[in-house]
Each structure stands twice: as structure tokens, then as C-alpha cells.
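Box 4.2: Ligand-aware structure prediction
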Amino acid sequence: PRGASRGADGVVRLAGVPVTELAEQYGTPLFVIDEDDFRSRCRDMARAFGSPERVHYASKAFLSSEIARWVADEGLSMDVASGGELAVALHGGFPAERITMHGNNKSRAELREAVSAGVGHVVLDSMQEIDRLDAVAAELGVVQEVLIRITVGVEAHTHEFIATAHEDQKFGFSLSGGAALDAVRRVFETDNLRLVGLHSHIGSQIFDVDGFELAAHRVIGLLRRIVDEFGAAKTSQVNVIDLGGGLGISYLDSDDPPPVDDLAAKLANIVATESAAAGLPVPTLMVEPGRAIAGPGTVTLYEVGTIKDVRLDGNASRRYVSVDGGMSDNIRTALYQAEYDCRLVSRDSRAEPVVARVVGKHCESGDIVIRDTWLPDDVDAGDLLAVAATGAYCYSMSSRYNLLTRPAVVAVRDGKPRLVLRRETVADLLSLEVQEHD
Ligand code: LLP
């Protein structure tokens, strides 16, 4: 986080709050969000892309009512991908007209909730959905603005499970074979849908502008074909191109993601050049960053428990440092071989750094938080470790595996902590159970 520093006593402060106090007050594991970091990334994005409402915070990265309030405050828009995300955003007072509803299999109920709440845009993902949404809008007596999600056939250089624009996957309408053009035709035939733009999302944790460039090129190519086929009058309102999310962040010191300003300038330039070349007016560029806003400013605090030096072949050994959470609060290492960095934050140590594997407390050997890291040789039970950049896709993908209760989430700002989500309790676990009848 931008507001992290180590005090003279060796204890790390987050926005001025000593981590030892946070651990004492709220327990561990604990997610600590540096609120100014989160908000300043919202502002950086808004500035880079020329206006806050063009930037949709992808709430799947992390959402609570409090986060919705921050994002609303900063003037950004929001991308939600389920009825649950929609409900929490609305509960936080997020203005519906700045919400875009996503999903490859939205239920009729979710569509109805979105349309009746008055969301700004729905992103259409299938032929069935076009008819379903048209019916819902007709029922509610409204005309709903929509975008169509295009699968542009770009191979994003990221993990297979988070790359989304190659042809052989479930999202969107394929460009090849004419599915995308058929979808546009179908939307034009409806009475209650109004097409305002095209959408593409090529994947996540991307460092390289090339994939976005190719996506923009292809989306604008499709826009040209749409104008040719349906005429300028009918298509004049189709003027948004949403290039989705995916901006990569640095998890390790060695990661080097492009600065947001550079990427935004390049994307704007590509869109301007491509549309000029296609003889089209320049469309409004929108984006949907999740990780790049929520990721960097949060750390997970863990308390160290058991330490084991395990003999490997020969003379080597590996140190296993167990912490009090694991794959239930961060599944990303197990799922994507994601890499993280951590520090001893409750005190200084001059001990020699040794290679260690940070593992959780779950009942499987894949329960690894950090595969290989360096920790001082004297790290011991009771020490606090902070894992960096855990703000995106950690809490939001958390589980209750082994019936661990979900950690609390705390925001820090100006030397003060504020609880955002309380820790789950055993009572929460039991609250889903149905009383037995005898
Ligand atoms: N827009 C759409 C349509 C998306 O599907 C996504 C992410 C985003 C925006 C935001 O992408 P971001 O800027 O956060 O990269 N669980 C995975 C990431 C999955 C991303 C899914 N879609 C992970 O932990 O890496």
C-alpha cells in the first residue's frame, strides 16, 4: 500500500496504524485496506481515462457496501456480475444508472432486478439473453440500453483460466462466423433494447498493450461493418467501446506493469486512429478495472504458528511457516500459481534471511500462500506476517473450507482503523442450518 511504513520500533504502520494494534483489536487473519490507496487509484484511473464515469470498477475484485460508497464518492461507474454484487452495490447507495450488469448466464430474476433498479447498461452475452432481456424490459415498460460482448479471438498472455477472449470459451459472441453481427441484428429487431456499444474483455493481469490494441482494432472493424449493414441513421447511437478490465498490477518487486496513464493514452490513441481509419466518429472508450484499483492497497495480516524444517533429498531442507489462514482467504496461489510477497511486520529482525514456504492451516498440501519467499531465520510463532497486494480476488473468492470463518476486513485512514466487514463467527456457520424436526 502507498501508506505503509516501518516505525522506529520496527512495527509496520498502515496509514499510520501499527499492525500490532490492528491484530490485537480485530484478530488475524485480517484484511487491511489502505483507503487512500484505493481512492487514489480510482482517481488515477479517472484522470487517465478522461472522466470518472468511463471507468467501471469491477466489483468482482472486492465489494462491500463501504467499497460501493468509496467508488460512488470518487464518481466512478461500476461493473457487477451477479444479483448479489448488484444488491450490495445498491445497498451501499451506488447510483443504478452508473452500473453495468455482466454475466454469461444471468437469470431472468437477475435481469429483472437490474432493469427495475434502473442500471445504466446490460452487457448481452447470448442470443437467448437478448430475447429474455427484451421480454423483461417490455414487462417493466422500459427501454434498456445494452452493449454486446464480443469475443475478439485474442490470446491474452495470462493464466488459461483468466484469459477470456480466445474463441473456445463460454463468453460473448464470436466475431468469426458472424455470431456478433447476428446479435446486433437481433437487438435491432427488439422493441425494448437500445444498442449503445460493443464490449470486449480479453483477460486479467495483463502487462502488455498489444492484446488491447488487437481487441480495439477488431471491435472497431465490427463497428464499421455494423454501420455498413444497418446504415448510419440506425447506428448513430452505437458509440461506446468498452475494452473491459485486465490491467495488471505488481505482486512482486520484480513485476513491472505499465503505468495507468501510459496504457490509457495508448488505448485512446489506438481507438482514435482505428476509428479514423475506418471512417467512423471516435467512440467513447470505457474500461472495467478491478484488480488495478482494489489489489495493491490491501494486505493480509497473519499470525505465524507452527514452523517445520523438512528434510529434502541430500542435505537440503525446506522451512514451512504456517499461518492462521490459507487457501480459504487466498485461493489464488493454489488456483493460478499466483506469486506473492510477504514481510515480517510486527518487529525488526537482523537474522539471516532463509528461504521459506508460507502455508495455511487447511487439510491439504496444496494449501500454499507463498511457494518460495525469504523470511528472517528467527521468525517464530506469534510473529505477524503481511502478504502484500491481496485486495483483489482474495476475500471475494474466499470460502469456509474446513469451516474456517472468514476474516474481518478493516479500512485504515489518517491513523484510524474502521471495520468494513466483521469476522465471521461459528454462529454465522450455524445460521444456515435448518432446525431439526423430531
Ligand atoms: N470486466 C469483465 C467483463 C471481467 O470479466 C473482469 C474480470 C473484469 C472486467 C475485471 O478484470 P481485472 O481488471 O480485475 O483484471 N479470479 C481471477 C481474475 C478473474 C477475472 C475475471 N473477470 C484472479 O484472481 O486472478
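In the box above, the bound molecule is LLP. The pocket of LLP is lined by residues 58, 60-61, 79, 102, 162, 201, 204-205, 244-247, 288-292, 332, 336, 392-393, 397 (CB under 6 Å).
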